[in-house]
Amino acid sequence: MGIYTRTGDEGQTSVIGGRVIKDDDRVEAYGTIDELNCFVGQAISLIDDTEGKFEDLREHLLEVQQELFDCGSDLAFVKISETKYKVRDDMVTRLEQWIDQYDAENPKVERFIIPGGSSLSSALHVCRTVCRRAERRTVTLGQHTDINPSVRRYLNRLSDYFFVVARTANARQQVSDIEYVRSKKVFRRKE
């Protein structure tokens, strides 16, 4: 199989069930998910786990990468029946469990956090922001065509997950989060 096909030279690309222009909302959505997946891979490569502090995080991020492919696949179909969708709401529920698990390790936060601290934390914040863009692109696509609504929910929760694990990465490395000092106290931890 050759890498280049020349079929996209005129500005169109194939999706499952047809061809569209390369800046079609569908391509923008799953293309941004692909970009996010690359950044997740980069974050994984920054995990220095000689002390075993991040084995769970590495495992979870590898699973997220598989699920991001599922998200892109679900959005690549022009027409698909609900029974063929790969992303399901139980995946969203599992993300919520991971969020709660990691957040329990994090120090109390009252103000907005500025991305930074450790290299791993910074990379996970990049994942968070690209995930938000992927979510926005998916919402745009869903305004004019049927999509798997679980993909939208998954991306929404995944960005929360990245925020929490970015903080956990700092906490486990004993690096302080950087608070936005001009922020009022906006977060209240549930007791």
Describe the structure.
The protein is mostly helical and 191 residues long. It is 55% helix and 6% strand. The protein contains 5 helices and 4 strands; from the N terminus they run E-E-H-H-H-E-H-H-E. Strands 1-2 form a two-stranded antiparallel ribbon. It has a two-stranded antiparallel sheet with strand order 3-4. Helix 3 packs parallel to helix 5. The model has no long low-confidence stretch (mean pLDDT 88).
Strand order of the largest sheet: 1-2
Number of helices: 5
Strand % is: 5-15%
Task: Flag low-confidence runs.
Answer: none
Mean pLDDT: 88
Distance between the termini: 57 Å
Mass-distribution shape:
globular
Gyration radius (Cα, Å) is 18 Å
For the largest beta-sheet, the strand count, sense and barrel status come to: 2 strands, antiparallel
The strand count comes to 4
Pfam families: Cob_adeno_trans (PF01923)
Domain Cobalamin adenosyltransferase-like: 3-169
InterPro entries: CblAdoTrfase-like, CblAdoTrfase-like_sf, PduO-typ
EC number: 2.5.1.17
Search tags:
single chain; 191 residues; mainly alpha; two-stranded antiparallel ribbon; two-stranded antiparallel sheet; 5 helices; 4 strands
Layout of helices and strands:
Layout: E1 12-15, E2 18-21, H1 25-45, H2 55-76, H3 89-103, E3 113-114, H4 119-142, H5 149-172, E4 178-179
Antiparallel strand pairs: 1-2, 3-4
Helix pairs in contact: 1-2, 1-4, 3-5, 4-5
Q: Could you give a quick summary of the protein structure above?
A:
Belongs to the Cob(I)alamin adenosyltransferase family. Pathway: Cofactor biosynthesis; adenosylcobalamin biosynthesis; adenosylcobalamin from cob(II)yrinate a,c-diamide: step 2/7. This protein has 191 residues and is mainly alpha-helical.
